[in-house]
Design a protein that fits this description.
With 170 residues, the protein is mostly helical. It is 87% helix and 0% strand. It contains eight helices and no strands. The longest helix is centred in the first third of the chain and has 46 residues. The radius of gyration is 22 Å and the shape is elongated. The chain starts with a helix and ends with a helix.
C-alpha cells in the first residue's frame, strides 16, 4: 500500500512536470495521486462492511441452526466460514484462525467487531460473551439477538421510507 501510494505520487509529479513543463502542475497531480489510493481503500472497506452488515442476520440464523443441531459455538463458526459467501466467510475464517493461534474466543470476536464497526454485530458479540460467562441456552439467545436485529433493520427502513420525501426535497 505504501509503495503504491509513493509510486503513484512520484508518477503524478513526473507526469505533471513532463506534460506542463512546470513543477506546479506536477505537485498538484502528485497531491491528487497521493490521496486517491487512500480514498479507494476507504471505499473498499466501507463496501465490505456494508456487505457484512447485509449478511449478519443470515450468519446468526446459520449459527443458531448449527448450535441447535448439536454443534458447539466454535463448530458453528466453522459452519459460517464454510457455508457463507464472502465477506462473512472470510471474517469468520479469520476469527477461527485467531482462536487457533491461541486468542480467546471473546477477544477474537471483539477483534471482528473492531474490524466491521457494526452496532448489530457488537450486540451479538456482547450477547455471546455474556453467554460464555453466565451460561444458558445459546440457541434462545441467538434467536433473540436475531429478532432484535431484524426489528431494528425494519424500523430503520420504515424511518428511511417515511423521511424519503423530505430528504428528496432538500
Amino acid at each position: 500500500y505504501i509503495f503504491i501510494r509513493v509510486g503513484s505520487t512520484l508518477a503524478g509529479l513526473l507526469l505533471g512536470w513532463l506534460v506542463a513543463r512546470n513543477i506546479l502542475p506536477g505537485i498538484g497531480l502528485a497531491i491528487i495521486a497521493y490521496m486517491v489510493p487512500g480514498l479507494m481503500l476507504r471505499m473498499a472497506i466501507q463496501r465490505r462492511q456494508q456487505a457484512f452488515e447485509r449478511q449478519l442476520v443470515d450468519v446468526l440464523v446459520l449459527m443458531s441452526g448449527a448450535v441447535r443441531a448439536g454443534y458447539s459455538l466454535l463448530q458453528s463458526l466453522d459452519v459460517c466460514a464454510r457455508d457463507m459467501p464472502p465477506p462473512a466467510a472470510d471474517e469468520f475464517r479469520r476469527v477461527r484462525r485467531e482462536i487457533g493461534l491461541g486468542l480467546p474466543l471473546n477477544q477474537a470476536l471483539t477483534n471482528l467487531t473492531a474490524r466491521m464497526r457494526n452496532d448489530d454485530l457488537y450486540l451479538a458479540v456482547t450477547a455471546i460473551n455474556i453467554h460464555s460467562q453466565v451460561g444458558g441456552n445459546l440457541v434462545t439467545m441467538l434467536e433473540a439477538v436475531t429478532e432484535t436485529i431484524r426489528d431494528r433493520v425494519r424500523l430503520f427502513s420504515e424511518v428511511r421510507m417515511l423521511t424519503s420525501q423530505q430528504r428528496f426535497n432538500s
